[in-house]
Design goal:
Elements lengths: L4 E7 L10 H14 L3 E4 L7 H12 L5 E6 L6 H10 L3 E5 L7 H14 L4 E5 L5 H20 L3 E5 L13 H8 L2 E5 L1 H9 L3 H14 L2 E2 L3 H21 L3 E4 L10 H9 L4 E3 L3 H13 L5 E9 L4 E5 L15 E5 L4 E6 L5 E9 L6 E10 L10 E5 L3 H10 L6 E5 L3 H11 L2 E3 L5
Parallel strand pairs: 1-2, 1-3, 3-4, 4-5, 6-7, 6-9, 8-13, 9-10, 16-19
Antiparallel strand pairs: 11-12, 11-18, 12-17, 13-14, 15-16, 15-18, 16-17
Helix pairs in contact: 2-3, 5-13, 7-9, 8-9, 9-10
């Protein structure tokens, strides 16, 4: 999971009671934030006058932090933290602590008020230093800030066109740049195939032999395997040359059976790769990759079972090999086309988060709900993943229908609903989180 970088400092005024305790208090906050999964960068001094404010602001400006975290040791002037935030240009966490004579709450409320008025992203928390809930909430918010920062400047390669007749996958390219800071770089599918044709047979053959040796069964034509690996090597070359953080492969059904395994291998290498030219879904895979220590599973809701409150999700066979259960995976022709190469397996068990991201300017919306993947068989010729939901499946179906969510759902191993909810608030987009209330 992404480790947010938190810039921690304390503010105080010497005439106020309790200022002398700032070092001990700051050390305790630092320790607990680190234990909760953050990377804390603590200022070398507290802020108590204009000179210390300038030094701390300049120091943080050089640290590449994701979010500021101010501990209000006692009442202090609000303009100190405003100046530091202006120097760093990150969101800010305000932390007030108990103490009837310190004015920590007063100072926190004062800063909270002015940051709201000048529209600076921030969160305000109050509680004892040892309050685990407050620490957890601060790290959740810091993680959302880190996700937003990572997106800025990310490049998604778009190979081929989106699937005709799949209109919800259309995106507003300028809005994606404005809202998320993500640049789309388009590349024609025929250009990719031209690159693939230049890959030497012996190089592609070696890669095909390596992946084939790991499969429990191979029924695809070796000639198709060779062509598929040329496509994989060409796509990886394209990603490296263009410095993509993610890629989506379009031009379905032309690419059916020729790009399934390349997508699977790229995801296994930690490069989010989506299907059918669906850019929003690929963006959600990139987001989830920041949170999960495993590849992201690209799928569709194929079966809803109210009896055991489960969903089966799958796509046609482009799942990362490492997501297979203990039985392993097979390499075979893709369903419907009965041609080329795809990868098949039932997905492994574990905690999961199910995510859908759709929309364009003015109506971007994200849905996330959690569950636990359970053992399943090859109930669909692809990469079936079956999971038991936390929330009633009927409620989820009704809510997702009312909000107009789409058909491509990404599964991340781990529970991340809380962080995604914080991310949506930070980005100013709508969110549906049935498990979070």
């Amino acid at each position: 999971m992404i480790k947010p970088k938190i810039g921690l400092y304390a503010v105080y005024e010497t005439p106020e009671e309790g200022w002398q305790n700032w070092q001990e208090q700051l050390a305790q906050v630092e320790s607990r934030l680190n234990e909760a999964g953050a990377q804390v960068i603590t200022a070398p001094e507290a802020v108590y006058d204009d000179a210390s404010c300038a030094r701390v602001g300049e120091w943080f400006r050089q640290q590449e932090i994701d979010v500021l975290h101010v501990l209000v040791a006692c009442w202090s002037f609000d303009h100190y933290s405003i100046r530091i935030q202006q120097a760093v240009q990150t969101p800010i966490i305000i932390r007030s602590i108990p103490g009837i004579r310190t004015g920590s709450i007063v100072g926190g409320q004062q800063l909270n008020c002015i940051l709201t008025d000048i529209e600076v992203e921030h969160q305000y928390f109050y509680g004892k230093l040892e309050n685990e809930t407050v620490i957890h909430q601060a790290v959740v918010y810091a993680t959302a800030c880190a996700m937003r920062k990572r997106l800025k400047g990310a490049r998604i390669g778009v190979v081929g066109r989106r699937t005709e007749g799949m209109t919800p996958t259309a995106v507003d390219e300028v809005e994606m740049l404005r809202l998320f800071g993500v640049q789309l770089v388009h590349f024609d599918f025929d250009e990719l195939l031209a690159m693939a044709n230049k890959v030497p047979d012996q190089v592609a053959e070696k890669v095909w032999q390596d992946i084939s040796a790991k499969a429990s069964e191979v029924t695809s034509n070796p000639r198709h395997g060779l062509a598929t690996m040329k496509n994989y090597l060409a796509t990886r070359q394209l990603i490296e040359e263009r410095h993509f953080q993610a890629v989506t492969i379009g031009s379905y059904p032309r690419c059916q059976g020729t790009m399934c395994l390349p997508i699977a291998l790229l995801n296994d290498e930690g490069l989010p790769a989506g299907c059918e030219g669906d850019i929003n879904s690929t963006l959600s895979m990139l987001l989830l990759s920041y949170l999960s220590n495993a590849p992201i599973h690209f799928g569709e809701m194929l079966e809803l079972n109210p009896a055991d409150n489960t969903i089966v999700t799958s796509h046609c066979g482009a799942g990362a090999p490492s997501l297979a259960d203990s039985v392993g995976f097979t390499l075979c022709p893709v369903r419907l086309a009965n041609d080329g190469v795809c990868i098949r397996y039932p997905a492994r068990t574990g905690p999961v988060t199910y995510v859908n991201l759709v929309g364009r300017k003015g109506n971007y919306r994200l849905c996330a709900f959690e569950g636990n993947a359970v053992t399943t068989g090859m109930v669909f010729e692809g990469n079936p993943l079956k999971f038991k939901l936390k929330t009633d499946i009927g409620t989820i179906f009704q809510q997702t229908a009312e909000k107009g969510f789409g058909h491509h759902w990404m599964t991340a191993y781990g529970h991340f609903g809380e962080v995604l909810q914080s991310f949506c608030k930070l980005m100013g987009i709508s969110g549906l989180f049935p498990d979070q209330g």
